[in-house]
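Researcher: Please generate the 3D structure of the following complex. Treat every line as part of one assembly.
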Amino acid sequence: MSSKFFAVVAGAGPGTGRATAIRFSKAYPVVLITRNPENFQGTVAEINNAGGKAIGISADASDVKSLDSAFETIAKELPGLKLAAAIFNVGGNLNRKPFLELTADDFDAALGANARGLFNFAQKTVPLLLESVPISEHPPTLIITGATASIRGSYLWSVAAAGMFARRALGQSLAREFGPKGIHVAHAIVDGVIDIPRTTHYTVNNGAEDGKIRADAIAESYWGLHTQHRSAFTQEIDIRPYVEKF
Amino acid sequence: MSSKFFAVVAGAGPGTGRATAIRFSKAYPVVLITRNPENFQGTVAEINNAGGKAIGISADASDVKSLDSAFETIAKELPGLKLAAAIFNVGGNLNRKPFLELTADDFDAALGANARGLFNFAQKTVPLLLESVPISEHPPTLIITGATASIRGSYLWSVAAAGMFARRALGQSLAREFGPKGIHVAHAIVDGVIDIPRTTHYTVNNGAEDGKIRADAIAESYWGLHTQHRSAFTQEIDIRPYVEKF
Amino acid sequence: MSSKFFAVVAGAGPGTGRATAIRFSKAYPVVLITRNPENFQGTVAEINNAGGKAIGISADASDVKSLDSAFETIAKELPGLKLAAAIFNVGGNLNRKPFLELTADDFDAALGANARGLFNFAQKTVPLLLESVPISEHPPTLIITGATASIRGSYLWSVAAAGMFARRALGQSLAREFGPKGIHVAHAIVDGVIDIPRTTHYTVNNGAEDGKIRADAIAESYWGLHTQHRSAFTQEIDIRPYVEKF
Amino acid sequence: MSSKFFAVVAGAGPGTGRATAIRFSKAYPVVLITRNPENFQGTVAEINNAGGKAIGISADASDVKSLDSAFETIAKELPGLKLAAAIFNVGGNLNRKPFLELTADDFDAALGANARGLFNFAQKTVPLLLESVPISEHPPTLIITGATASIRGSYLWSVAAAGMFARRALGQSLAREFGPKGIHVAHAIVDGVIDIPRTTHYTVNNGAEDGKIRADAIAESYWGLHTQHRSAFTQEIDIRPYVEKF
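Model: Done. Output below.
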């Protein structure tokens, strides 16, 4: 366990966020950020009980002040530690409605959660990642969780897709701007239902075994992205169950 | 000239908007919407002097109330006319800055202009286009102007691309939702500098003849999209000068 | 009718080829090339009876010698005429089988029909199109018919998609090489079933009216591509029925 | 080291092939296939000297009989072993010429090397991979090396891109057909110059440190793909140096 670096996961609820925090906690102290503290408490305890180090902070990434405050807390709680990896996993706003039933507020909510949150998170983390470039073992990494709606607009998904497309655009822009400065920015298109308590009763892919995505498998791929050599960065991956239609 | 239908162009400044208004005015009365009336006055006069019919309305598409008011004006000025074509051509917000010099306000401005404006415009025009489906000669059409930044995020273009990706997502979603109901939704990726007074002194493509896009050529392609048979809709086209690198 | 130029359509069977030949015959003498003369005879007669000029040549585009001979015939039959437009519409080889039932011969057949045919056709037509650049009214044009399999490999479509992807790659490469020299190279992704005698009894899109693509609608879009100004070339369009899922 | 399974690398010359063979030899006996035995001899010796097990076979993947013979040799040399991973890394045919200087033979050579080789290799390996599905630790894997030309046709790259697009189409088709049967088919777009003896004197990315791709970094990502859980397969990744423009 490196004591010089930490990782931060925004959107650390059950599923990808929790699994990523656990995976990265094997190497770094981790900070879990969610709006609702109930969503990080169990994971924080689990990591600390297992001999790792985790702290949880309640904040809303789509709100600049809330995120400012979160990073002030981090600076106090983890003094002197540098940022090795930042994972933006805030759940997409999935306001699934026919277009004409949506309001301008729905649009703003979707764009706020899906895209402005990443904008704010990157504003806070990119300067910290830049500081780590000369000293970290692995290239400092910003990983962004996307979804099918990141590359496909469709019926019922108009504002969700607008936000997820925008999220992906930010990711590409950051990769092209900060890759040459040594930061690895990667975007993952997660195309399938994740196997979490909330989805236990969903029947997907005709109920096939492993037809839902294991969150720890996503986390393992994220760790793989983090540890890529800077001569061989991956900017985008897709992740889906073997039985998923695509 | 049909007297039963009209067309509306949002973002009717010099360039694509003006040329599209002129092209569609050969078939329909046209409504030009821009924030600054100076941007439509010349074109409105030109169309009316040429024997067509045009009205200009000052409104901001990113503001719901402003757009509501504009469509109330349209209903009064063109009583009984149905909507044949709606063109969203509002200029992309191109807040070109290094990422770390941008603020959350810059993000909101870019998303507002590039994406929320289309959301609002579609909320107003899709119901009108639906009314025209059973009666119009050509399938009622919503055409959306995009740009290179609609499909590529890059250095200096992060928030502009976020907004343009979101615009494209809305266009895809609308096409998939309303195509089966008879509305033709098309998105054009305009990849190059348009030849307008403001760009006269730009040197692009090494100064090659026709190295800037003629706005009337874009307008002709938009007319081609509008007149496609419903069995053969195009959802997306690219448009660029023969000498443009891509 | 221009008497200085002609158009050539390879793959001029019923459907897109026939309709394109008829559409372009309004402006140019047209040459129809198919392997089986039965596939062009009716269309040739129809055009000539309607006051246009058409000739049919039996040739196999995937065979260099066969195509050489065809263009020698053209030079004799239409002496002095320059080439304004070349349309490659040779039907995709759709050897739809599970992968393990395919043989290397199936692979070669699919690549030959779907890609080598275009390679050969472009070798013959690009030099002729280059000669027309300085003198033709519209930029000399090479239009290539693609399909869903041009952008998506899938079960049963492996070798068909391999050939159609290759066809699209050639189109992109030709556009980037010869666009700056004044030739307009465009690729159309035709995504749906075309309404021809052979498909009359197919039920597609739940039998919706206009649920199959009208070939004359494709031809009209091809004519629109041909007449685009060189400052505003489209490289790729998609074409599908309003009710098609995509 | 599992003694029940082996891996095979076609195109095992210096660079990605060699590095992949070395990486996979930590877990499996490996078979290296190249046309020229000089290209595998050093690597085979290196692996065997390091305590691994490797055999080299001279064969041409674009020739069915040659590949048949190679797999007969494998069956004799590694009796009873099942196939865990097959990597197709045959170097793209890069017949870089202006289009009008190419011949039909150039086309056939490019398609043969870039696409027919994979067709043949998959015909041989997919049945073997299917046998391993029920028993292997990691999902049996077919990894295909692609390049920038897999997704972009351009000047000088017409036939190379045609072949690489076709290769990618086969990969997508195989993934969609055999993913649900438990085989992981992944395609890697390697976008940059690989750091091998032949490229030592190339100046790329302005001579930046790590501006060429380390082959062992590619191999590590391939190993990551091989070990993904079947609920979270990646179908396509890109790989490029941090300083590469894209």
